[in-house]
Amino acid sequence: MPELPEIEALAGFLTGKLDGHTVSRIYPVAVSALKTYDPPLTALHGRILGPVRRHGKFLDITAGDLHLVVHLARAGWVRWREGLPTTPPKMGKGPLALRLLLADPPGCGLDLTEAGTQRRLAVHCVTDPREVPGIASLGVDPFDPAFTLDALTGLLRGERRRIKGVLRDQSVIAGIGNAYSDEVLHAARLSPYKLAADLTGEETARLHQAVTGTLTEAVERSRGLVAGDLKAEKKRTMRVHGRTGQPCPACGDTIREVSFADSSLQYCPTCQTGGRPLADRRLSRLLK
């Protein structure tokens, strides 16, 4: 799933491609992706596009007083195209969800695609991004000056959930998903199972530094890359996420995994849990 660093890089890449150009046509190919009907997508035809902005993990393609807001979900992506046909794409079961065709340069535009069978990619055409429920409920952005150590301390106070889940909760901190929460917790040397409210002042300070540092470094690595290279860059630079069975880059211990119904987390026992493996209920059931 694209997270804050990839969405930030995509916003910059798309701004360079779209800002100042005119929309020729927008074709909704997967009807399930379109979550609004008023104003219609046709209201964007002939409009001059502006900068592309980010709200958490949402992309906001501006067009005057209208906004085409996209959430890529787990398997969605943005693909810049040149030499696109002017004829409408066929609606079907393929990965194409929406096509935006520019009037200039001719044949250029972007495709929104979604792999797999679960259709969760979402497209909204609105007059205010805050009309999108996911944006209206977003918590503080890690790049907002308001995300201070005191602010994080206040967010965690009384929070009786595991810190892994808190970091992924978009209503608490916007933009962090499964992959970067693993990376942040490894950098902060914290167990993903630790209750957020139980963090000491020193641990909270490490966490705050890990959030801002990890995301800033990821954004800087991704800046300037074309959209097609962002996924590979993210995978290449992960230190623990997706590295099960490999040596920890910090201490050399073997990175372990805990599996859930539809996701998994990775961690280093030496760096994060005092050398103790975390309980994996799925594995425990298999061994019974």
Would you kindly provide a written description of the structure presented here, covering whatever features stand out?
38% of the residues are buried. The protein has 9 helices and 10 strands. The strands form 3 sheets. A 4-stranded antiparallel sheet has the order 1-6-7-5, covered by helices on one side. Strands 2-3-4-8 form a 4-stranded antiparallel sheet. It is elongated, with a radius of gyration of 21 Å. By secondary structure, the protein is of the alpha+beta class. Strand 3 and strand 4 (66-71) form a beta hairpin. Helix 1 (4-18) runs parallel beside helix 6, helix 1 runs antiparallel to helix 7 and helix 5 packs across helix 6 (201-222). The protein has 2 domains: 4-136, MutM-like, N-terminal (N-terminal domain of MutM-like DNA repair proteins); 149-287, Helicase, Ruva Protein, domain 3, CATH 1.10.8.
So, CATH architecture of the largest domain?
Orthogonal Bundle
Q: Give the averaged pLDDT, no decimals.
A: 93
What's the arrangement of strands in the largest beta sheet? Answer: 1-6-7-5
Q: Report the structural category.
A: alpha+beta
One letter per element, helices H and strands E, the order comes to: HEEEEEEEEHHHHHHEEHH
Structurally, how many domains make up the residues?
2
What amount of the residues lies in strands? 15-25%
**C-alpha-based Rg, rounded:** 21 Å
Poorly predicted runs are 283-288
Write down the overall geometry. Answer: elongated
Number of strands: 10
The helix count comes to 9
Largest sheet: 4 strands, antiparallel
CATH class of the largest domain: Mainly Alpha
Range of helix content: 25-40%
N-to-C span: 33 Å
Q: What is the CATH T-level topology of the largest domain? A: Helicase, Ruva Protein, domain 3
